[in-house]
Amino acid sequence: MKINIITIDGPAGSGKGKIAKYVAKKWKLKHLDSGIFYRRIAYIISKKKINPIDKITIKILINDIDQISSQKNKILRSEKISNIASIIAEYKFVRDFVNTQQKLTVKKSKNKNGFVIDGRDIGSVVFKNANIKLYIDVDVNIRAKRRHKQLIDMGEKSIYPKILKDIKLRDKKDKSRKNSPLVIPRGAYIVDNSSKFSITQNQLNIIIGKYINGKYWN
Ligand code: CDP
Fold this sequence. Notes:
Distance between the termini: 14 Å
Number of strands: 5
Structural class: alpha/beta
Order of helices and strands: EHEHHHHEHEHHEH
Oligomer: single chain
Bound molecules: cytidine-5'-diphosphate
């Protein structure tokens, strides 16, 4: 049996990107980070000095975009862009646009093995029929510490209490928004990633490997 889609959802700073990268490399899948699309739109908004709450202008901007790049870039990971991304991710027209972009990326891809896609609503909304779903969770204080270190390593200024506050706010927004809130997708494996790599790489590979060999899910 061939694997197509593995989804990895979870809150900010849960380490889902790192797990996704590992899984992609190990199983020769393509990694798609859905957050990049929200971040890229946030970046354009910031560059054009558009107010993130100005829905009308953002809608016009989105209508003018045919395709948006899924390429990663360090510039998209700043705290300012994170905060704008989290505001615009609440808008339904933004989510519809990003979802279409993700589906197009998967459709157009020449990678025969499939994709590992991480985000907030991938297993619950965008790729509901994914073969394997993971939900990654981590205590908020640990996530804030990781994010703080990441920013310092990137050479950005970072004040821990502010990062903690920002992450809590983003969690609240992600979990309580009307459109595609962050939820544990049906049938997802819940992974507590509070220690270095709580689901061991071995366990993860057993899950994926058994599925690939068609012996799993009875
Ligand atoms: O890396 P981190 O987990 O902090 O964020 P991200 O995955 O790059 O996503 C940036 C923002 O986009 C998040 O704060 C979410 O609000 C939003 N997002 C979303 O709503 N749905 C997704 N599938 C991915 C990201």
